[in-house]
Amino acid sequence: MRKLLAYITLVFAIGGLISELTHNFRDLKLIYYNLDPAKYYEKDKLYIYKIENNNSSNSSGSNSWYYGVLEKQKINENIYYSTSYLMENTSLDKKGQYLKVWYCKNANKTILRDTNELQPTIYIKGIIIYALILLIIPCLISIFKKSKS
Q1: Residues carrying CATH 2.40.50, the chain
Q2: Most CB contacts within 10 A, which of 17, 59, 63, 65?
Q3: What is the pLDDT along the chain (149 residues), one digit of tens a residue?
Q4: What are phi and psi of 46, to 5 degrees?
Q5: Cα-Cα end-to-end distance for the chain
């Protein structure tokens, strides 16, 4: 039973490691960047040029893709979130419709801005991936350890 659990954990850990390698360790970086958001995130505006509504809905309603260009960074970005929330928080100025966002240049991460202060948060997905990666070696030891008969 222990070896089966080790094999299952190992599969998820290797999957997490491959995912992080392909994304340049983005989730692991976000753990660090989210501890001091004032240092790593900056206020920006996402000027919207395209909206795609998702026809399917879940228990929290329907979601939409908002595509746009970040004002300060001058890069294309998109946000997928609840349609009603995005519609309520879309503002308008002389340049067009926009959403207030926080942007982390180091991790290329955009999040919606509710307030003018971004509080430190715990990035659960990154912590789970980090824990799984740390479990690779103990799982390998458990798998290759000869059982006492």
Answers
A1: 38-118
A2: 63
A3: 788 888 999 999 999 899 889 988 888 888 888 888 889 999 999 999 998 887 665 555 688 888 999 999 899 998 888 888 888 888 888 989 999 998 988 888 888 877 777 766 667 878 888 888 899 998 888 888 865 54
A4: -100, 105
A5: 16
